[in-house]
Amino acid sequence: MNNKLLQLFIRQSGRCFYCDGDTWLFGAGESKDAIRKRLGVPLAGNGSKKALRYRRATIEHLHRKVDGGSDKMENLVMACALCNSRRGELPVNIHLAATQDNREGEK
Question: Using only C-alpha atoms, what is the Rg of the chain?
Fold first, then answer.
């Protein structure tokens, strides 16, 4: 397991920086059944594996490395795999605002 990812996971209490959803760490010793139960993912059936894959914790660079960002902890956050992939090349503030707008619409 990546030490920086573990530190970010602890720092953010296992919550995605963008959507504030629960995430999980690969290799942390928690069984997949326990992870599914904690995240509310069905144990089997249509979309179960994909839902679990989307909630996996990943390292996200606030300022992308190609734009001069670093691997220092102050430039890193933890995001679920879905939010990390959806950000793409968007600046962090635009993606964060769009994600928060989506959360407001769900309430």
Answer: 14
Range of the domain at 74: 3-106
pLDDT digit string (tens) for the chain, length 107 residues? 689 999 999 999 999 999 999 999 988 888 888 888 888 888 777 778 888 889 999 999 999 888 899 999 999 999 999 999 988 888 888 888 888 766 655 54
- Kindly provide the b/e burial profile for residues 73-88, where b requires at least 16 CB atoms within 10 angstroms of the residue's own CB: eeebbbbbbbbbebbe
The total number of structural domains that make up the chain: 1
| Lookup: tokens for 75 | 């430039």
CATH number at residue 98: 1.10.30
